[in-house]
Design a protein that fits this description.
It is built from nine helices and seven strands. The chain is an alpha/beta fold and about 240 residues long. The strands form two sheets. A four-stranded parallel β-sheet has the order 5-4-6-7, sandwiched between helices. Helix 1 links the parallel strand 1 and strand 2. Helix 1 crosses helix 9 and helix 4 runs antiparallel to helix 9.
Length: about 240
């Protein structure tokens, strides 16, 4: 079985690498027969050139929620620079597994997610990093719409921690104006760091009733990484052979 090369962005915040390491252990526990390796684009070690040379056969799986600049440009460029032609799996989002992970984190924060009555009176802010790529932001808005439609929330508003607004306080105000009796903020981010801290501070200052944790090393994210790995393997197996 080809290895799963998890490619994360990296951060100066040590919580980021610790979360990636915990996620890798979750993946290994779910699929002991698959080798799992990690490489980073920036800030952390090991970098991509340090890892790809020792993998005889692997699929690169980006630890990214949206197909934005890192997925479209940075990861392919880093693999090319390392002399690698590894197949690259799709990004994680969108997926029903991510919605389940968001539900899990809200439940862990004390929200009775399993109650239809609670969901019907709760407005949720899906707080993402934000991107200069309009397609990536459109994908996040589509996730919010699907989450509201499938769960029956009173409302789901998107907020961004960087790039253009709206910000968390704006989204909370919109939910309250629309009649939500209770509000929650759910970070649509994979690991702790500057942006999740910014979201948490804004949620507290704006009086959100519930603040969930980042998606992190939860079972749904681990399962999704393995799903993307398997999808890329199937795509590689069915791709037409290159001819000279």
């Amino acid at each position: 079985m080809p290895a799963l090369l998890l490619i994360a962005h990296g951060s100066r915040d040590p919580r980021h690498a610790a979360t990636v390491a915990a996620l890798v252990e979750e993946v290994r526990a779910r699929r002991p027969g698959v080798e799992v390796a990690t490489a980073y684009l920036d800030h952390c070690a090991p970098r991509i050139p340090q890892v790809v040379g020792r993998l005889a056969d692997a699929v690169a799986v980006p630890l990214l929620l949206n197909r934005a600049f890192h997925a479209k440009h940075d990861i392919p460029a880093a693999l090319r620079a390392a002399g690698s032609r590894l197949p690259v799996a799709d990004v994680l989002g969108p997926s029903p597994l991510l919605l389940a992970a968001l539900d899990r984190r809200l439940a862990e924060a004390g929200l009775a997610v399993g109650s239809p009555a609670v969901r019907a009176r709760t407005g949720v802010v899906l707080a993402a990093a934000g991107s200069s790529d309009p397609a990536a932001d459109a994908a996040t808005r589509a996730v919010a719409a699907q989450w509201r439609r499938t769960r029956g929330w009173a409302g789901v508003e998107v907020a961004y921690a960087s790039a253009a607004g709206p910000r968390v306080p704006d989204a909370l105000a919109a939910l309250r104006a629309a009649g939500a009796g209770r509000t929650a903020v759910a970070p649509y981010l994979l690991a702790p760091g500057l942006l999740p801290d910014r979201i948490a501070a804004a949620a507290g200052a704006a009086g959100a009733d519930v603040l969930a944790g980042v998606l992190g090393a939860c079972p749904e994210v681990a399962a999704l990484l393995l799903e993307r790995h398997a999808q890329a393997l199937r795509a590689t197996a069915t791709a037409p052979a290159l001819t000279a």
